[in-house]
Amino acid sequence: MKHIPRKRFGQHFLTDDAIIDAIVRAIDPKPGQFMVEIGPGLAALTQPLVERLGRLTVVELDRDLAARLRGHEQLEVVESDVLRVDFTALARAQQAPALRIVGNLPYNISTPILFHLLEHVGVVQDQHFMLQKEVIDRMVATPATADYGRLSVMLQWRYAMENVLFVPPESFDPPPRVDSAVVRMTPHAQPAVLDVRRLEQLVHVAFSQRRKVLRHTLGRWLEENRVTVDFDLQRRAEEVPVAEYVALAQAPTA
Question: What is the pTM of this model?
Answer without folding.
Answer: 0.91
